[in-house]
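Need residues for this backbone.
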């Protein structure tokens, strides 16, 4: 592989016009496709194989035209102090609002609170439900404006009016913090590479890669039903790895220049060595992201595949476009150790041979490996403690900031109708095969009423055929509580008894039931996912490092960092620690998809640093250095670059903490803190400590496996032979001329 990549690097450097034109044309093609494509909507959320999804599909089938997936809004009214919503003036204002909303172009139904039981017992709060024919993300802006205008008209009459539901759902925004993250990355690149031009190359190529990836996702969003957050997460991961991969190639190129090689040869060697590490690091990320498909949640699968595609583009750009732009830069990209005049280049050095920070740190760890190992493990273990209190859930209006109308509507409904009113359960009774469907509907309602933790059970509402009915159930506790989850299980247990006696099927759905089923499905999928992803990556790393213990250490270190990162997420977003600093206005359960998504992404990124750092250590060991000295040598050449790469990735991920979308915000924080733990504690401290303790045993591999494994030559040993042959050819030519 090293020889192939070496040739690819030289070709890209030499034929830079062709390579640059190819990537520019690809970017233009993707951009044109994105410009002509419909705007991304909200990806349909389905969880195949669960009872909640089965009930939802049954509603679509048996209640045609009901717009089960249509947007909904709850317009909540509260009377002024010492007044009731039943007072004539307030009642007239509500009626005017209902009439105004009923005339909306995309509205299918508006319920009158005075006819549909929408007034609280104390008479202070009322609500009108509005149903639309299209999902929330597909609503015309005119429909949203009409909804807001109707609420404003009601406020003019003296009522407090707030709007809940998904009708006001908007495309999430990442805010200016993302730009700050890129700015931090630029500063780190300048400090690391010592040149404004060299620092600009990774940023330029990473932006090209993300542009191609995001534009392609946008172009295919409508066709493949990709949600609006898909492109945000793809850009988050693509930008971070794109900058890092380019940084490693540029750094190796400058190191090759410092050894006196010609620029084309240096580009070839940089791609042949650092490029090999980029390929395998990228493969681990792609495996982790594509592996999310084992969960069988379509939205998560699409997010993973889209992000994996962006990572693949970043790898290809690092192998081809980077050497091409290095060819354009020419002598303006200086050898390692030299800085541009603008940054202090040309000045005399005080101590030319002074060991760098990586050398000093590795020497310290090698002298005290056990102490460093214990301190790192104990520290990450302490950070992981909050993960034991992890509570999973899906975001609803109750998790919105208190400044939003959705959250205020949620609180008003809780005040007037009880905390369970915001998480109603929808029980679907399929009595198609029953002799007396009406009796089955009555029996189901009576048995649900007899259960605990139930405030209200609405009469069964059958369809036109009379063979299926829905029963609305209001729990006594809030949607995310354990009591509500127990109620869902109790209803399902009662439904099983009804099926045994009558043959009718009782299914529970609704947002709360869907949340419970998602959490259970994700919990069930976590172990198979870990086995698949870690197993495949473990085999890949055995091939890369030709060792058993090094990949095992890498996997265990990942588990430490991901558990510590989950602990930090729980501490901030569930417990509320440092919530003000992180912009968390409302704490609550951690999103159900967060743990498994974090496991996938963090594993891929953790293996990035493992590959980049340990390949340099193995390279020194292969060339004859003793194990302890190989660790120091590896850190001398790679610690600075790996540190810079980690800081860049943390900065990019941290930029997404400013997003308006709670899932993007939480994932941005989780990935940033995970990279912090993994890069600076696991890879920079625990890894060298373990390698120092293991010594030569770290590189042990059974002889039969050594013979069976392909030699991928990540260290570039074949390049030395290739260079030697080239030098001999040059000598022969000189002799012929003589």
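Answer:
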């Amino acid at each position: 592989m090293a020889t192939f990549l070496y040739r690819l690097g030289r070709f890209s450097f030499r034929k830079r016009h062709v390579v640059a034109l190819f990537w520019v044309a690809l970017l233009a093609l993707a951009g044109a496709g994105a410009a002509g494509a419909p705007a991304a909507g909200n990806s349909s959320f389905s969880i195949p194989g669960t009872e909640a999804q089965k009930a939802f599909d049954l509603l679509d089938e048996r209640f045609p035209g009901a717009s089960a997936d249509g947007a909904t809004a709850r317009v909540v009214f509260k009377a002024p102090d010492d007044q009731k919503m039943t007072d004539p003036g307030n009642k007239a204002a509500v009626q005017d609002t209902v009439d105004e909303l009923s005339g909306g172009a995309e509205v299918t139904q508006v319920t009158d609170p005075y006819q549909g039981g929408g007034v609280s017992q104390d008479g202070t709060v009322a609500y009108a439900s509005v149903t639309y024919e299209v999902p929330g993300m597909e609503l015309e802006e005119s429909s949203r404006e009409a909804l807001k205008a109707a609420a404003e008209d009601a406020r003019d009459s003296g009522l407090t009016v707030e709007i809940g539901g998904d009708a006001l759902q908007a495309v999430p925004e990442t805010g200016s913090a993302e730009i700050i993250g890129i700015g931090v990355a630029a500063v780190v690149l300048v400090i690391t590479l010592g040149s404004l031009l060299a620092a600009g190359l990774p940023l330029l190529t990473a932006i090209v890669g993300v542009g191609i990836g995001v534009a392609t996702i946008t172009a295919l969003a409508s066709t493949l039903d990709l949600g609006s957050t898909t492109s945000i997460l793809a850009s988050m991961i693509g930008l971070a790895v794109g900058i890092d991969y380019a940084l490693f190639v540029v750094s190796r190129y400058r190191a090759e220049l410092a050894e006196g090689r010609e620029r084309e040869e240096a580009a070839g060697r940089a791609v042949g060595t650092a490029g090999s590490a980029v390929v395998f690091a990228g493969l681990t990320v792609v495996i982790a992201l594509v592996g999310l498909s084992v969960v069988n949640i379509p939205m998560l699968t699409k997010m993973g595949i889209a992000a994996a595609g962006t990572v693949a583009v970043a790898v290809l750009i690092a192998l081809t476009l980077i050497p091409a732009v290095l060819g354009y830069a020419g002598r303006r990209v200086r050898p390692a150790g030299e800085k541009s005049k603008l940054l202090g280049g040309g000045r005399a050095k005080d101590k030319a041979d002074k060991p760098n920070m990586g050398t000093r740190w590795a020497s310290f760890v090698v002298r005290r490996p056990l102490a460093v190992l214990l301190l790192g493990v104990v520290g990450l273990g302490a950070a992981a403690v909050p993960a034991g209190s992890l509570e999973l859930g899906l975001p609803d209006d109750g998790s919105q900031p208190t400044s939003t109308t959705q959250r205020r509507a949620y609180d008003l409904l809780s005040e007037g109708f009880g905390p369970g009113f915001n998480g109603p359960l929808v029980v679907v009774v399929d009595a198609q095969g029953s002799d007396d469907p009406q009796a089955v509907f009555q029996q189901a309602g009576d048995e649900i009423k007899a259960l605990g933790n139930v405030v209200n059970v609405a009469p069964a509402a059958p369809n036109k055929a009379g063979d299926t009915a829905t029963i609305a159930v209001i729990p006594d506790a809030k949607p995310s509580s354990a009591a509500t989850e127990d109620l869902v299980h109790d209803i399902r247990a009662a439904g099983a008894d009804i099926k045994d006696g009558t043959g009718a099927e009782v299914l529970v759905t609704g947002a709360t039931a869907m949340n419970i089923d998602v959490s259970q499905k994700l919990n069930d999928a976590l172990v198979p996912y870990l086995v698949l992803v870690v197993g495949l990556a473990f085999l890949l790393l055995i091939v890369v490092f030709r060792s058993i213990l090094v990949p095992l250490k890498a996997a265990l270190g990942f588990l430490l960092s991901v558990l510590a990162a989950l602990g930090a997420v729980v501490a901030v977003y569930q417990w509320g620690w440092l919530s003000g600093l992180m912009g968390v206005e409302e704490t609550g359960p951690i999103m159900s998809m967060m743990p498994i998504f974090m496991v996938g992404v963090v594993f891929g990124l953790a293996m990035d640093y493992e590959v980049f750092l340990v390949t340099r250590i193995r390279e020194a060991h292969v060339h004859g250095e003793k194990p302890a000295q190989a660790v120091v040598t590896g850190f001398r050449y790679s610690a600075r670059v790996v540190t810079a790469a980690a800081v860049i990735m943390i900065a990019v991920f941290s930029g997404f903490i400013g997003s308006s979308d709670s899932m993007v915000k939480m994932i941005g924080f989780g990935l940033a803190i995970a990279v912090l733990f993994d890069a600076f504690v696991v890879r920079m401290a625990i890894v060298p400590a373990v390698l120092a303790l293991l010594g030569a045993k770290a590189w042990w591999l059974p002889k039969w496996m050594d013979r069976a494994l392909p030699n991928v030559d990540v260290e570039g040993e074949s390049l030395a032979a290739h260079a030697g042959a080239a030098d001999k050819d040059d000598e022969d030519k000189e002799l012929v001329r003589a």
